[in-house]
Automatic annotation (TrEMBL):
Keyword tags: ATP-binding, Cell membrane, Membrane, Nucleotide-binding, Repeat, Translocase, Transport
Intracellular or extracellular location(s): Cell membrane
Pfam families per the UniProt record, alphabetical: ABC_tran
UniProt keyword Transferase present: no
Superkingdom as given in the UniProt entry: Bacteria
Domain ABC transporter: 7-243, 250-497
Single GO cellular component term: plasma membrane
GO molecular function, one term: ATP binding
Topology class, membrane: Peripheral membrane protein
Listed SMART domains: AAA
Principal cellular location given in the protein's record: membrane
Protein name: ABC transporter
Gene3D superfamilies: P-loop containing nucleotide triphosphate hydrolases (3.40.50.300)
Length: 504
């Protein structure tokens, strides 16, 4: 144990049902640094942080703060030891005001026992100002952007004078400019002596904001060091156990018949005059910043939203889609962006979550064909490297990224002719990302038509044949893949370039 470290965790061991998840793990964090905790999906990052945050107890091992051993018996105790945890799935309550969220469980009361709203609001404003945000403390959280929800969690950490803030994949739901704001904030916190443990699968972020790193692989610590001294390649190699290429996966092939045609689709305040065509075998990307309307556009095409005008043609026939059932019937599938809210059923087993909407495949005379279901699951488990010891456990026992892989597998299994993937690789590690993309490319080769929605230009550049950039609800530019570059796409996505380039 280093005597000078602010935090030292040593010999941490943890098993669930006799499956070892953490083995003799060691983690040292210095004061005033941003420390990256890295590793593949299921490597044990969230579990290790749950132990530090008092959510889980280790089977063995010790935690030292400034050289003194502490026991994090519950989250409250961890909090009083100066540790705040911003979870992978954000924890703010939408139906409460900002100040109520800030003081949840630690409400200020006056001497008569009544809530002291004014003081709570003042304190909230004080901290928000410190964070550089001008916001009404009485605003309801449900009216706010995701990045503000995160901000509330950070503000809460400051309210408790935390010395260590754990951020578990904080940027997976943030737009580009929100990420920048978070990074500025992290730098400010660092300057004031706060340490941050930062979990992310985005290596660029690690380079931009982290000072040092620790890497877990299959529950073991396999490396640590200073970010400046290690190259991203070595770090990736340690994480995944092999090198990962970021080559383009796009395959040139003849596109088939026109399968989906959208004409003049508009929805007040969300998107307007959307025109595009999609062919069999085509992978078409839609990218832009948050608020560009792409998710709302495809939620409308899939029938989640009804308030739109214009025309949708599938196989040259006009269809009226006002319910997801109609979309599925027309052969359109959608993998929604928000896993927790839209795509999984928490109390259902892993295997049933996968077979959920492709039941037809596994049903024989009304009975679910268990063997087929199992075989298909095994197939995806191997292909996408889904880490699960027993597919009959409920899906919430899986790590965040592995839950996402199950959602993707489910849709790869569905027999839709058009599949829309909204932000498919959220929370997926670099190695598995490539595998998911390879699957999508294969689907296209088999003649399926694919739409990818993503805020990351490099992602669409890797697999798409054609790319549409959206800005404020409109398609502002269309590229053939060979003409597109990251800079060019960003130029349009940010509104810096306005002339739409229509390709013939
Ligand atoms: N409550 C639980 N019961 C059983 N197994 C669990 C439980 N919580 C986590 N696990 C298992 O522990 C392993 C590590 O999970 P953890 O959530 O720590 O991974 P992670 O590194 O955070 O991954 P990701 O990047 O996907 O979020 C996984 O194999 C997971 O299935
Ligand atoms: Mg995790």
């Amino acid at each position: 144990m280093s005597e000078h470290s602010l935090l030292t965790m040593t010999n941490i061991n943890k098993s669930f049902n006799r499956v070892t998840v953490l083995k003799d793990v060691k983690l040292c964090v210095e004061q005033g640094e941003v420390h990256a905790l890295l590793g593949e999906n299921g490597a044990g990052k969230s579990t290790l942080m749950n132990i530090l945050g008092g959510v889980l107890q280790p089977d063995e091992g010790s935690i030292y703060l400034n050289g003194k051993e502490v026991k994090m018996l519950n989250p409250r105790l961890a909090q009083s030891n100066g540790i705040s945890f911003i979870h992978q799935e954000l924890n703010v309550v939408a139906d409460l005001a900002i100040y109520e969220n800030m003081f949840l469980g630690v409400e200020l009361r006056n001497k008569f026992g009544f809530l002291n709203v004014r003081d709570m609001c003042d304190k909230t404003t004080e901290i928000m100002t410190k964070l550089g945000v001008d916001i009404d403390p009485k605003e309801y959280v449900r009216n706010l952007d995701t990045s503000y929800k995160q901000l509330i969690e950070i503000a809460k950490a400051l309210l408790h004078n935390s010395s260590i803030i754990i951020m578990d994949e904080p940027t997976s739901a943030l737009a580009e400019h929100e990420v920048e704001r978070l990074f500025d904030l992290m730098r400010k916190l660092k300057e004031s002596g706060v340490s941050i443990i930062y979990i992310s699968h985005k290596l660029k972020e690690i380079q931009a904001v982290c000072d040092s790193y620790t890497i877990l692989r299959d529950g073991e610590m396999v490396g640590s060091g200073k970010v400046k001294e290690g190259s991203l390649e070595t770090i990736t190699k340690l994480m995944v156990g092999k090198s990962v290429s970021d080559k383009r996966l796009y395959q040139e092939h003849e596109l088939g018949a026109k399968i989906l045609e959208v004409k003049n689709l508009s929805s007040p305040g969300l998107f307007k005059q959307i025109d595009f065509t999609l062919h069999q075998g085509e992978i078409l990307g839609f990218t832009g910043l948050a608020g560009d309307g792409r998710s709302e556009l495809f939620e409308s095409i899939f029938g989640f939203r009804k308030n739109y005008t214009g025309e949708i043609k599938v196989n040259n026939e006009v269809v009226k889609i006002n319910h997801p059932k109609k979309a599925l019937k027309a052969g359109i599938g959608l993998v929604p962006k928000d896993r927790k809210e839209n795509a999984i059923i928490k109390d259902l087993s892993v295997i049933h979550n996968m077979s959920l909407s492709s039941m037809g495949h596994f049903e024989k005379k009304g009975f679910i064909h268990e063997k087929t279901e199992k075989d298909r699951f095994q197939h995806y488990k191997d292909q996408l490297n889904i880490k699960v010891h027993d597919p009959n456990v409920t899906i919430d026992k899986l790590s965040g990224g592995n839950q996402q892989k199950v959602v993707i597998a489910k849709w790869l299994e569905v027999n839709a002719n058009v599949i829309i993937f909204d932000n498919p690789t959220q929370g997926i590690d670099v190695g598995a990302k490539t595998e998911i993309y390879e699957h999508i490319v294969q689907l296209a080769e088999q003649g399926k038509a694919i739409i990818i929605l993503s805020s990351e230009a490099p992602e669409v550049l890797r697999i798409c044949h054609n790319i549409n950039v959206m800005y404020h609800g409109e398609i502002i530019a269309r590229f053939k893949r060979e003409d597109a570059s990251e800079d060019e796409i960003m130029g349009y996505a940010t509104g810096a370039k306005k002339e739409a380039e229509i390709i013939g």
